[in-house]
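Handout, page 2. Input:
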Amino acid sequence: MSEPIHELIEALQSEVSVSFDIDEPSNPDGEWWLDIEIDGMRSNVLWQSALGFGLFIDTNSYGRRPQEIYRNSAEASARILQLAAQWRKNAQIHPLGLRELRHLLGETQSHLADSLGTDQARVSRLEKGADIKVSALINYLRAMGGRLELRAHFPTFEAPIEPVDPVAVKQRLN
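Output:
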């Protein structure tokens, strides 16, 4: 068994009762598939050495690529445990929200507020907000070392959308 797969399984088994069905590739560089069940929550995980762990969040994802990708087993197992906790609350799993993202990265609202030059209450409102400014989201993700990617989906095509970066605009104007 591949070392990263073994690490993922051990990390999950140390926290919860979990069952696995593992499909090993015939080619060593191929895709490993894991069907995971925790307390009735089912999810699929794809692992490739070049990609990392791909998690399928959408139950209607047959024939598609993973919705979330994690480069290491620690982050993948932490996210799977988040999904299991969501499932226990309301029998649903949801895409990654800002609060879950912050927890996954081990950040606190206070530390993030310092990085953003604001207060903890503002970070809390941002995480709960239903109508977030794209610029605020760009800054929030940048403060944790990330970046925003947007993608538009239409019946006949899909394409990335390049948001206006407020920092780049400000630098151009100066």
